[in-house]
């Protein structure tokens, strides 16, 4: 069955028109005859959006009961049974009510797509999982409902629904987004122009990156080599010399002039024997380019200009930044240099910037290693010298009589020149042609192919032997130099790679991307299996090529041990490249092992934290729970004693002691159970809108009368909370404040509104807490100062913060002006649909 297609309307903030655009698209499809239904659409009471639902078939929602409330959710089974061509599913990041088949709505959408149903959905940029920290830094609010980025990236179409901040604020002011009583708070907080502009930029950049990925994939699939300058990409060519930092900074300034510009610094390790780079300088340049937001790339290439241009076209670059040549003037006789060659061959689609620097014309710093494998132009000149040189020399010597010895020396010098230029074969050709000409023109009898004097035969044989020997030595030296240069290039890459891996700077995907980039492959994957009979599984994959499931499907496979292999697609590698590939494969296995060890260490750390909690729990049970039990036991024993006649006052005092001990036990056990729920992530808040004055007074029932006073105005907006969790959190806060407040100084519980938040402050006049300990008091089993052992197990504040964060709020400690401590509980004001979360996040609950 063909998988359905997913289309997502992406917006920067609520109210930009995502649902409206989705419904308008549905009407267009219905008019074209497409079977389209509304699986779940939330109009939030917006009249214009609600009107668009008319004329569309709606699948009835499924109502789920949970903790005394009824909540509507998408009926996934009904949609699958109806089996439309297109289903509209609003709010992709929504968390389903407990009791649903899936925890998240995007998982419901995955089932619809698997069933072959096309889905049109909506999501805001702040709900993408990877942007949670960024959005929190902008808005001050942590998004509890998120969707994995990969779900959105896999969508067949992502359409940006855009609106300027000014237009969105006008919509808000006109009442088209929220209810009138919520407009002022929204405009002064989340819908501030700065917030909306930053969120809009996030959305635009994310969609631009997505479009760039589509473009790269299209160019790869259609083998488009011509550069399409959709955005500025500046490639900075590095030689490892000191001028590299100047070039990187110039490239960064060029990138800043164009929105979304990128800097890609590339060092091409030559195999032609030119100056090697300084590893220390390369490390400094790599650090600099990464600090400036760019990326560093290390590539092997025999032809520097060709490799640089191939890399630039491969990444769809628009500009290349190179430094002026460090060669001295006389060195230009060997060729125009890399910069001039790149500028000449770049074509009209690539701009080349030649940047001056302090090292111009000062030399390369290290001697040039000559004699690398002979290039094409050098071989051509060798053949010209070896074939055309002897006839020209013979014509010249016919005009001047220098004697046979001198003639032979001149022909021998020409053979040596051909050997130095072109290697063995041109030298053999020169020796053969030269010996024939010597025999015909200069060896008696002249102008005949015979040799009368045997001594002349010996001279000609020696002449040929010397030419062949010189040519062989030149060719062998060229091969050895090429091998040494290649080994040096390989060692540079491997040392650079090993340094990154040992420092832990390279992940598995980054390493595979480096392999793919270094060898110019389409894709790279690390495959593994548990045994010889088990199927292969992919531990990591990069690239755009067709994915391979087994090593034998790849163009190149490199085994790593018995049950792991590195598989590459794109071309067949020569045997000499497999040595470096084997090192890459071994490093990939090391990176994979290190990643798994890190995961095991994280699990071990979690277990250790659990052991610490359990140890503290046992300590609490051994003392704090035994103390009230001992008091109850003593009071009961005394009352049952027949040897003592207790007065009514004494009996009442003993019964009061029993009741107080039972209350302490109930409080301690309740906190222990709450902490265990938080640690295991089983706290499921049932969020609903409620007034604070309905909950907060109930939390004061456990403290002595007169020890706390309440100031919660009735005009406060309603809050979106779980009433039970809020009551427990407030009770713990008030009891903790009363415990440390001096006699005659009642604790103040005050409420106030701030933008779209409501704050509840619990103010005491106790000794206070220093700044360095304000976070530590929220940790489980922590007591501050000289609190007695019988004062509790140190869980009250930890439970209160855990419950606050489970409801989407925060709990912080502040100094009370004049002395004391103030606990600030911040809650989300009602006004938007409650966010249902199946479980609180354990790592945040433990804070």
UniProtKB/TrEMBL annotation:
GO MF: ATP binding
Matching Pfam families: DUF4118, HATPase_c, HisKA, KdpD, Usp
Matching InterPro entries: HATPase_C_sf, HATPase_dom, His_kinase_dom, HisK_dim/P_dom, HisK_dim/P_sf, Histidine_kinase_KdpD, KdpD_sf, KdpD_TM
Principal location class: membrane
Transmembrane segments: 380-397, 409-437, 457-478
Membrane topology: Multi-pass membrane protein
Location in or out of the cell: Cell membrane; Membrane
EC number of this enzyme: 2.7.13.3
Reactions performed catalytically: ATP + protein L-histidine = ADP + protein N-phospho-L-histidine
Keywords: ATP-binding, Kinase, Membrane, Nucleotide-binding, Phosphoprotein, Transferase, Transmembrane, Transmembrane helix, Two-component regulatory system
All copies of domain Histidine kinase, residue ranges: 620-831
Record-linked PANTHER family: SENSOR PROTEIN KDPD
Name of the protein described by the UniProt record: histidine kinase
Organism: Streptomyces violaceochromogenes
């Amino acid at each position: 069955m063909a998988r359905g297609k997913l289309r997502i309307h992406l917006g920067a903030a609520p109210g930009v028109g995502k649902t409206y655009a989705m419904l308008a698209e549905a009407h267009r499809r219905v008019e074209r005859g497409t079977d389209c239904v509304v699986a779940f659409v939330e109009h939030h009471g917006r009249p214009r959006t609600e009107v668009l639902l008319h004329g569309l078939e709606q699948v009835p929602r499924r109502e789920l009961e949970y903790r005394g409330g009824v909540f509507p959710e998408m009926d996934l089974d009904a949609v699958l049974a109806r089996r439309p061509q297109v289903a509209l599913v609003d709010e992709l990041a929504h968390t389903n009510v407990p009791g649903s088949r899936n925890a998240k709505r995007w998982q419901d959408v995955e089932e619809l797509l698997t069933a072959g149903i096309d889905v049109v959905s909506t999501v805001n940029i702040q709900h993408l999982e990877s942007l949670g920290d960024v959005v929190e830094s902008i808005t001050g609010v942590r998004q509890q409902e998120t969707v994995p980025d990969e779900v959105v990236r896999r969508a067949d179409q992502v359409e940006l629904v855009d609106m300027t901040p000014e237009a969105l604020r006008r919509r808000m002011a006109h009442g088209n987004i929220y209810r009138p009583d919520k407009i002022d708070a929204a405009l002064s907080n989340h819908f501030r122009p700065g917030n909306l502009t930053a969120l809009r930029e996030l959305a635009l950049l994310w969609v631009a990156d997505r479009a760039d990925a589509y473009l790269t994939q299209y160019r790869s699939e259609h083998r488009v080599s011509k550069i399409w300058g959709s955005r500025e990409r500046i490639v900075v060519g590095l030689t490892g010399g000191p001028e590299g930092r100047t070039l990187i900074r110039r490239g960064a300034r060029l990138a800043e002039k164009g929105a979304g510009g990128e800097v890609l610094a590339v060092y091409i390790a030559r195999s032609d024997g030119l100056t090697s780079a300084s590893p220390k300088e390369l490390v400094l340049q790599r650090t600099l380019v990464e600090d400036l937001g760019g990326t560093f790339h290390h590539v092997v290439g025999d032809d520097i200009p060709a490799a640089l241009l191939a890399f630039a076209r491969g990444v769809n670059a628009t500009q290349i930044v190179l430094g002026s040549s460090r060669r001295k003037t006389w060195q230009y006789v060997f060729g125009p240099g890399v910069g001039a060659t790149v500028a000449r061959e770049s074509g009209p689609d690539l701009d080349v910037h030649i940047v001056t620097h302090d090292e111009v014309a000062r030399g390369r710093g290290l001697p040039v290693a000559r004699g690398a494998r002979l290039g094409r132009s050098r071989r051509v000149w060798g053949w010209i010298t070896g074939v055309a040189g002897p006839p020209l020399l013979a014509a010249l010597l016919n005009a001047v009589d220098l004697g046979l010895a001198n003639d032979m020396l001149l022909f021998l010098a020409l053979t040596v020149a051909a050997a130095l230029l072109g290697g063995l074969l041109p030298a053999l050709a020169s020796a053969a042609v030269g010996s024939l000409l010597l025999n015909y023109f200069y060896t008696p009898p002249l102008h005949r192919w015979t040799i009368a004097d045997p001594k002349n035969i010996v001279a000609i044989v020696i002449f040929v032997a010397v030419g062949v020997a010189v040519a062989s030595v030149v060719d062998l030296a060229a091969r050895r130099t090429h091998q040494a240069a290649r080994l040096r290039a390989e060692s540079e890459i491997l040392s650079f790679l090993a340094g990154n891996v040992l420092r832990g700077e390279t992940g598995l995907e980054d390493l595979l991307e480096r392999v793919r980039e270094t060898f110019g492959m389409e894709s790279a994957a690390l495959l593994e299996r548990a045994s010889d009979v088990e199927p292969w599984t992919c531990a990591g994959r990069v690239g755009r090529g067709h994915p391979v499931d087994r090593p034998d499907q790849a163009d190149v496979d490199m085994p790593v041990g018995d049950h792991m292999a590195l598989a590459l697609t794109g071309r067949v590698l020569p045997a000499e490249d497999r040595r470096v590939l084997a090192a890459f494969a071994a490093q990939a296995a090391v990176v994979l092992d290190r990643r798994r060890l890190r995961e095991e260490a994280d699990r071990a750390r979690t277990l250790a934290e659990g052991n610490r909690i359990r140890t503290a729990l046992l300590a609490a049970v051994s003392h704090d729970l035994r103390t009230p039990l001992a008091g109850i036991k003593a009071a009961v024993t005394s009352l049952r004693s027949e040897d003592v006649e207790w007065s009514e006052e004494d009996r009442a005092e003993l019964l009061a002691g029993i009741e107080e001990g039972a209350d302490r036990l109930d409080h301690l056990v309740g906190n222990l159970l709450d902490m265990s729920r938080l640690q295991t992530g089983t706290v499921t808040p049932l969020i609903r809108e409620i007034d604070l004055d309905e909950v907060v007074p109930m939390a004061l029932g456990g403290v002595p009368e007169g020890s706390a006073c309440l100031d919660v105005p009735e005009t406060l907006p309603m809050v979106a909370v779980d009433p039970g969790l809020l009551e427990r959190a407030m009770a713990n806060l008030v009891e903790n404040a009363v415990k440390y407040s001096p006699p005659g100084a009642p604790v103040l519980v005050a409420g106030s509104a701030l933008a779209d938040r409501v704050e509840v402050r619990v103010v005491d006049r106790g000794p206070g807490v220093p700044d360095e300990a304000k976070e530590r008091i929220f940790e489980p089993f922590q007591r501050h100062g000289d609190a007695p052992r019988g004062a509790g197990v140190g869980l009250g504040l930890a439970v209160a913060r855990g419950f606050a964060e489970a409801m989407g709020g925060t709990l912080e400690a502040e100094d009370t002006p004049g002395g004391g401590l103030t606990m600030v509980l911040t809650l989300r004001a009602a006004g938007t649909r409650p966010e249902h979360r199946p479980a609180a996040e354990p790592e945040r609950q433990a804070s």
